[in-house]
Specification:
alpha+beta, 14 strands, 7 helices, 193 residues, tt1808, chain A, 27% helix, six-stranded mixed sheet
């Protein structure tokens, strides 16, 4: 009789991305914090978009961008239903979120950012679980520009600030796609240590 652990490992399907024509195996699963951030963002957008034209997709859905690039962002928003097919999204999403991890941060900040920019992604978020920060890039005249960096401060960090400095810290921001959606920073990092 086969060892059940060997059987499970042999049948496990590794997740893959196509990056510059090279198939790259993704880690079998994200950390709990990474997963919570992805779920929090997807839930927030999913609730807001219910009954609207745009749709939120969570980690695991292929984003086909070029013949050499097929990524699986942690979350994406697609407002053109014609781009959504059975095997994923074909063409630029309107918003892409990548949650950084040590093994992917370089690609997310470098090559993937360039491809998202060249393909016309309108808004790009880089979310850092360790820093509890969100970098927002907006596409302007074909180039990503850093719009802002938002962070959720820890108590010991807040204690070092004056009351005026604490009052100046933004607690929420707006997504460029939806002017009536407030993104609360603490909601993005809910239950993330």
């Amino acid at each position: 009789m086969e060892n059940p652990a060997e059987y499970e490992y042999r049948d496990f399907k590794w997740r893959e991305e196509l990056i510059d024509g090279v198939t790259v195996a993704m880690a079998p699963g994200p950390s709990v914090g990474h997963s919570r951030i992805s779920q929090n963002i997807s839930r927030m957008f999913g609730n807001y978009l219910r009954g609207k034209k745009c749709e939120a997709f969570i980690d695991g859905v292929d984003l086909h961008l070029t013949e050499k690039d097929c990524f699986q962002p942690d979350c994406m928003i697609v407002c053109d239903p014609d781009k959504v097919r059975g095997d994923g999204v074909h063409g630029a999403a309107d918003l892409v979120v990548e949650v950084l991890s040590p093994s992917t941060a370089g690609r997310d900040r470098g090559y993937k950012r360039q491809v998202y920019e060249q393909c016309g992604v309108r808004e790009y978020w880089l979310v850092s679980p360790g820093d509890r920060s969100i970098e927002i890039y907006l596409l302007k005249e074909g180039k990503f520009e850093l719009e802002n960096v938002y962070a959720l401060y820890r108590d010991f960090e807040l204690n070092k600030l004056t009351p005026a400095q604490r009052a100046a810290i933004p607690m929420s921001f707006k997504c460029s796609l939806f002017d009536d959606l407030d993104i609360h920073i603490e909601d993005v990092f809910e239950r993330v240590e």
